[in-house]
Structures are given as structure tokens and as C-alpha cells.
């Protein structure tokens, strides 16, 4: 991120300073409101030394993540199953790449059956993941770190949200004041990922139609 002079991971190595502010107190200190939230993207950039190339083809490149970290106290509500993504994984004109970490044996089997590339071993840290996301046309994910990373990179990201999501996504809107490239797909009923999958499939088919109509993809 541009503008960062120094990052200290060990408190014992802190430099002399005059002012300290907790990160989540900055909106109050800076007078941030819903109307003036800074949304100048991208404000993150992938590293130059990318370790993997996705190549090129005439299909829409889509990264997927269906579950967040298991230690999150609300993970059971914000996450879904890979099987919930099957609704739209058969859409023609798209190539899917799994960015999901900590895959189960069942997930691996299902990815193989769907002929979806598993890139988890290449997502060692956020820098590696950012380098991969930068090569995608779209990210479809639940409310986890990948959603924020894709938004900060300025990448189109479709986020599946539970019926009562994290406060940052608010309650009714389909966009995000923090991430202009985000589109929110909310549950209309608690636990109902099925209807969310239907809406994503319809939106994905429309996007692919527009993508294929571009002159470079003719």
C-alpha cells in the first residue's frame, strides 16, 4: 500500500512516536460519514513478482471462495458449501478457479469433478492471492478476507451475504460505499443460499454475454 513508511510487527521494536490511534477509531477522528467514505480504488496493488500465470483464453476468468476461516465466531452463518455454488458453476463461457483454503477431501473431489483449478497452494499469503486475483475478471465469494482484498484491488467482486451480515455491508443496498466494484447478493431468508445461487447464475450469464460481445473476445 502506498504511503506506508514502516510496519512494525513486534511492539518491542516500536520507534519513538508522539501520537497513537487505534485503526477503527480513524473514521471518528477523520470525520468520516456514509457520504464521504473514501472509495478511491484501487488502493492496493499486487507484487510485481507473480509466481503463477493463469494464461489467456476467451472465457471469463472467475475466482471462487465459499467459506471463511473456521475460527470466526459467525463463520457458520457467513459461509456456505461448495455444493451451494454448483448452481452457477456449470455456466458456459466461464473458467472457474478455486481460491479456497483448507479444502476438505469432499471439496477436492467436487472440484475435480467440475474441472475447477485448485489454486490454494499458490495462495500462501495476501500478496500471492492478490497476484492471482489481478489476473481474474471476477471474484465470487462469501463475506471473508478475499472480498475485501478484491475490493481494495478494484476487481469486480460479487459477495454472498447472510440474512444478517456484518455491519459494514449494511442491510438493504446491493452495492458498497467502500468498494465501488462490489455487488452484494443477500439472503432474503436466513440460511437460504439456494435463491442467492439462482440470482448469481442469472447475473453471470448476462455478464458472460456482454463479455463475449467485446471485440477482443470475438
Walk me through the structure.
By secondary structure, the protein is α/β, with parallel strands linked by helices. 27% of the residues lie in helices and 13% in strands. It has helices at residues 26-30, 75-78, 86-89, 105-113, 126-133, 145-152, 193-213; strands at residues 60-65, 94-98, 117-118, 138-142, 157-161, 182-186. A 6-stranded parallel sheet has the order 3-2-1-4-5-6, with helices on both faces.
List strands and helices in order, with pairings:
Layout: H1 26-30, E1 60-65, H2 75-78, H3 86-89, E2 94-98, H4 105-113, E3 117-118, H5 126-133, E4 138-142, H6 145-152, E5 157-161, E6 182-186, H7 193-213
Parallel strand pairs: 1-2, 1-4, 2-3, 4-5, 5-6
Amino acid at each position: 500500500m502506498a504511503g506506508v513508511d514502516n510496519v512494525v510487527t513486534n511492539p518491542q521494536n516500536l520507534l519513538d512516536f508522539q501520537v497513537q490511534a487505534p485503526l477503527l477509531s480513524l473514521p471518528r477522528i477523520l470525520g468520516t460519514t456514509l457520504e464521504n467514505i473514501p472509495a478511491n480504488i484501487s488502493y492496493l496493488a499486487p507484487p510485481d513478482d507473480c509466481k503463477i500465470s493463469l494464461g489467456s483464453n476467451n472465457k471469463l476468468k472467475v475466482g471462487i471462495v465459499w467459506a471463511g476461516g473456521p475460527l470466526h465466531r459467525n463463520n457458520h452463518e457467513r459461509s456456505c458449501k461448495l455444493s451451494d455454488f454448483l448452481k452457477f458453476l456449470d455456466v458456459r463461457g466461464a473458467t472457474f478457479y478455486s481460491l479456497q483454503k483448507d479444502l476438505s477431501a469432499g471439496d477436492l473431489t467436487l472440484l475435480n469433478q467440475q474441472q475447477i483449478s485448485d489454486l490454494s497452494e499458490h495462495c500462501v499469503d495476501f500478496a500471492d492471492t492478490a497476484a492471482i486475483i489481478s489476473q481474474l475478471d471476477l471474484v465470487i465469494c462469501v463475506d471473508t478476507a478475499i472480498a475485501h482484498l478484491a475490493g481494495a484491488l478494484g476487481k469486480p467482486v460479487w459477495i454472498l451475504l447472510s440474512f444478517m451480515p456484518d455491519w459494514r455491508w449494511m442491510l438493504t443496498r446491493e452495492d458498497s460505499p467502500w468498494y465501488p466494484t462490489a455487488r452484494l447478493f443477500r439472503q432474503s431468508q436466513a440460511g437460504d443460499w439456494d435463491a442467492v445461487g439462482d440470482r448469481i447464475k442469472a447475473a453471470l450469464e448476462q455478464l458472460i454475454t456482454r463479455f463475449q460481445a467485446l471485440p477482443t473476445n470475438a
